[in-house]
Amino acid sequence: MRSCQETIRDLEKNLETRKQEEAALLNEIEVTGQAFEDMQEQNSRLLSQLREKDDAHIKLMVERVKLQQSQKVMLDEKTVLVQQANVLQEQLDAQVMMNQKYEETISLLRNSVHILEKELSMMHQTLDAHKRKTIESAQTSADLKLHLDRYHAQLKEVQELVAEKSEALEKQNFKNRRVQEELKNLNRKLERMRKLEMASNKDEVLLEEIREYKEILRCPACKNKQRDAILSKCFHVFCYDCLKSRYDSRQRKCPKCNTAFGQSDMHKI
């Protein structure tokens, strides 16, 4: 009987120990499970961050390829613009030299006209003096009259030549102004290309370019309204109100090149 009681006590002690071990084991399992859940949650976050980084990396690679393509296009455009600017500059230099030759020719012709006018004046004086002479000087007077007529004819020819050269010079100057305007526009384009290459904020450069284009579209006379009319005489463009105002006030010359125009030369565009 006593032995059975001791055995029971030992079993009860073992049972209590087993229960404590079981409780500790259950607690450890619970802690381990929570740690496992935390680790799974952390792994999920890390996987999400990794996917986001991969997406961002792919997006950056695509943007880089687009930027490289855009830079290549801009470099090609810049090369073309530089070539056009060089060609226009060469044309402008040649036209400037031609203008100088025209001006020298006109200067020489004007000097000739001045000399002929002086000689003509002297001939008039001599003719008047000889008219007062006797009949003996009649032949001399006739000769002087012949010379005078000849000088008149020469003077008329020189004056016509001066007028022709002056008109040619005016046309050449108009061509020069057109070339200078084209060269100025090309230089503005080149400057915008350089700014676009160097600028960190492309939007600011594009906004500046839009502002410049709007400025080009404004009437150069009033600086306010949009260009909507052209002069067929010189092909300069202004707003129709400015041209109509100049026509009505009898200031019927182009505000840019001073070419005279009539009502039939004004056309809306």
From TrEMBL:
<comment type="pathway">
    <text>Protein modification; protein ubiquitination.</text>
</comment>
<keyword id="KW-0833">Ubl conjugation pathway</keyword>
<dbReference type="InterPro" id="IPR013956">
    <property type="entry name" value="E3_ubiquit_lig_Bre1"/>
</dbReference>
<dbReference type="GO" id="GO:0008270">
    <property type="term" value="F:zinc ion binding"/>
</dbReference>
<keyword id="KW-0479">Metal-binding</keyword>
<feature type="domain" description="RING-type">
    <location>
        <begin position="219"/>
        <end position="258"/>
    </location>
</feature>
<dbReference type="InterPro" id="IPR001841">
    <property type="entry name" value="Znf_RING"/>
</dbReference>
<keyword id="KW-0175">Coiled coil</keyword>
<keyword id="KW-0156">Chromatin regulator</keyword>
<keyword id="KW-0808">Transferase</keyword>
<dbReference type="GO" id="GO:0006325">
    <property type="term" value="P:chromatin organization"/>
</dbReference>
<dbReference type="GO" id="GO:0016567">
    <property type="term" value="P:protein ubiquitination"/>
</dbReference>
<dbReference type="InterPro" id="IPR018957">
    <property type="entry name" value="Znf_C3HC4_RING-type"/>
</dbReference>
<dbReference type="GO" id="GO:0061630">
    <property type="term" value="F:ubiquitin protein ligase activity"/>
</dbReference>
<dbReference type="Pfam" id="PF00097">
    <property type="entry name" value="zf-C3HC4"/>
</dbReference>
<keyword id="KW-0539">Nucleus</keyword>
<feature type="coiled-coil region">
    <location>
        <begin position="1"/>
        <end position="56"/>
    </location>
</feature>
<keyword id="KW-0863">Zinc-finger</keyword>
<dbReference type="InterPro" id="IPR017907">
    <property type="entry name" value="Znf_RING_CS"/>
</dbReference>
<feature type="coiled-coil region">
    <location>
        <begin position="148"/>
        <end position="203"/>
    </location>
</feature>
<protein>
    <recommendedName>
        <fullName>E3 ubiquitin protein ligase</fullName>
        <ecNumber>2.3.2.27</ecNumber>
    </recommendedName>
</protein>
<keyword id="KW-0862">Zinc</keyword>
<comment type="similarity">
    <text>Belongs to the BRE1 family.</text>
</comment>
<dbReference type="GO" id="GO:0033503">
    <property type="term" value="C:HULC complex"/>
</dbReference>
<dbReference type="GO" id="GO:0005634">
    <property type="term" value="C:nucleus"/>
</dbReference>
<dbReference type="InterPro" id="IPR013083">
    <property type="entry name" value="Znf_RING/FYVE/PHD"/>
</dbReference>
